[in-house]
């Protein structure tokens, strides 16, 4: 993947439910649609001792 994997994201526990599920930008909180979202690739995060895949999205303004 290009530079997207290098973007440092906020800690998961600080994000809203909408940011966690990709409805809002993970960086600025802007509401996203399928045409305005930029996929940041798969990330693995710890969820209470279990590794889970997470698929964060950002807006075009915050995208690399």
Word description of this protein:
By secondary structure, this protein is mainly beta. The chain has a domain of 44 residues. Helix content is 6%, strand content 25%. It has one helix and four strands. The strands form two sheets. It has a two-stranded antiparallel sheet with strand order 1-4. A hairpin with a 2-residue loop joins strand 2 and strand 3. The protein is globular and about 35 Å long. The two termini are 12 Å apart.
Quickly describe the structure.
This protein has one helix at 17-20, and strands at 37-39, 43-47, 50-54, 57-59. With 64 residues, it is mainly beta.
Outline the secondary-structure elements:
Blueprint: H1 17-20, E1 37-39, E2 43-47, E3 50-54, E4 57-59
Antiparallel strand pairs: 1-4, 2-3
Cα(first) to Cα(last) distance is 12 Å
Range of helix content? under 10%
The major beta sheet can be summarized as:
2 strands, antiparallel
Into which percentage range does the β-strand content fall?
25-35%
Give the number of helices: 1
Strand order of the largest sheet: 1-4
Q: What does the radius of gyration come to? A: 11 Å
Coarse morphology:
globular
Overall pLDDT score:
89
Features:
two-stranded antiparallel sheet, mainly beta, 1 helix, 64 residues, 6% helix, globular
